[in-house]
Design goal:
This protein is α/β, with parallel strands linked by helices. It is built from eight helices and 28 strands. The strands form seven sheets. A seven-stranded mixed sheet has the order 5-4-1-6-11-8-12, with helices on both faces. The chain has a five-stranded parallel sheet with strand order 14-17-20-23-26, with no helix packed on it. Strand 4, helix 2 and strand 5 form a beta-alpha-beta unit. The termini are far apart. It is an enzyme of class 2 (transferase). Keywords: ATP-binding, Carbohydrate metabolism, Glycogen biosynthesis, Glycogen metabolism, Nucleotide-binding, Nucleotidyltransferase, Transferase. Its EC number is 2.7.7.27.
Length: 383
């Protein structure tokens, strides 16, 4: 059945800048905020925007991500005429297998998109933290009779050189694209959110595949080609909270911001829920020895220590006389007695033995990887 719009979430990134946190899983599957995973925000935005058919393009270490998403039922996407579909690389007749870039990932999934037969395709990254109503962007796209609409966010001018920058006219038409310019002309940074007319994008990808095979990435190849050919390209400005959690520092910072009860994401908002798929866990247990301040504690936690301004994910255990401060503790972590954890991110299933310390600073967050066991009396994140 023909759809007006479907979404394709690009979730195959390795996330090398997150180091040991992504050795066992793809970046979009990294836990966030105690209860969620990073990809939950893109999936929830789709569900809340009324987009019921979502393809999730995976590649690197996909097992945990696949298990988390399932058929999309946790986000209300499973139904007779809707659903979340995991799209993994496979060997095609021309020998292609691994996705070479964002645009190539879409090209290799043309058969899936054609099956949905959409008029528009929404392309998303699976590793950003934000709430956004994509239906508003679609309305602007149709109003402008656009071939492509790019989601942009104003950033401080001094940071603009870190991003792909869209230069626009007074009607928000994109007249120039600059990839990480040394001297940016505007501060409209691409969010990696695109709405394409599918028929037009499909034609470009197929024609390129038959000739140069150069259209591997949207930012580097597709957008410049659209502009060169005079396609109607517009920017859609987003002014809410948006965070690229691609580094240890940004991931820690976003989690700490999440502790603010007045956080602009407003996670308690009933009209725009952030959904997730959680394992069933028993209620949390806080012993008489525990003290808690300005922290988020998920189900299944057993707390006997002192927790200050931290996030504890599902099934975390903290022993007597232990301090956890300004830290992010992912699920199934065991922290023994008389431990000290400050300015740290502790990966899933890690163990901090009795008496051990993991101490970072605000400028150098200490990180413990998946299932890692800390050895010695002190560990500061250095090898």
């Amino acid at each position: 059945m023909k759809k007006e719009i479907i979404s394709m979430i690009l979730a195959g990134g390795q996330g090398t800048r997150l180091g040991v946190l992504t050795k066992q899983t793809a970046k979009p599957a990294v836990p966030f905020g105690g209860k969620y995973r990073i990809i939950d925000f893109a999936l929830s935005n789709c569900a809340n925007s009324g987009i019921r058919n979502v393809g999730v393009v995976t590649q690197y270490q996909p097992l945990e991500l696949n298990d988390h998403i399932g058929n999309g039922s946790a986000w209300g996407l499973s139904g007779r005429d809707s659903g979340a579909t995991i799209l993994q690389p496979y060997s095609s007749s021309d020998g292609e297998k691994w996705f070479k870039g964002t645009a190539n990932a879409i090209f290799q999934n043309i058969d899936y998109i054609d099956l949905m037969d959409p008029e528009y395709v929404l392309i998303l990254s699976g590793d950003h933290i934000y709430k956004m109503d994509y239906s508003e962007m679609l309305e602007e796209h149709k109003k402008n009779n656009a071939s492509l609409t790019v989601g942009v966010i104003p950033v401080p001018m001094k940071e603009a050189s870190r991003f792909g920058i869209m230069n626009t006219d007074q009607a928000n038409r994109i007249i120039e694209f600059e990839e990480k310019p040394a001297e940016p002309k505007s501060n409209l940074a691409s969010m990696g959110i695109y709405i394409f007319n599918w028929a037009t994008l499909r034609r470009y990808l197929i024609e390129d595949q038959a000739k140069a095979r150069e259209m591997e990435d949207f930012g580097k190849n597709v957008i410049p080609t659209y502009l060169e050919n005079g396609e109607n390209c517009f920017a859609f400005a987003f002014e809410g909270y948006w965070k690229d959690v691609g580094t240890i520092e940004s991931l820690w910072e976003a989690n700490m911001e999440f502790l603010d009860p007045d956080h602009p994401l407003n996670i308690t908002e009933k009209e725009w829920r952030v959904y997730t798929s959680n394992r069933v866990a028993p209620p949390q247990f806080i012993t008489e020895h525990a003290t808690l301040r300005s922290s988020l504690i998920d189900d299944g936690c057993y707390i006997s220590g002192n927790i200050q301004h931290s996030i504890l994910s599902q099934n975390t255990k903290v022993g007597v006389n232990s301090l956890v401060k300004d830290s992010v503790i992912m699920s199934n972590v065991t922290i023994g007695e008389n431990c000290q954890v400050e300015y740290a991110i502790i990966g899933e299933n890690a163990v901090i033995p009795d008496g051990a310390s993991v101490i970072g600073t605000r400028d150098n967050i200490a990180v413990i990887g998946y299932a890692e066991i800390v050895g010695g009396p002190k560990y500061d994140g250095e090898e």
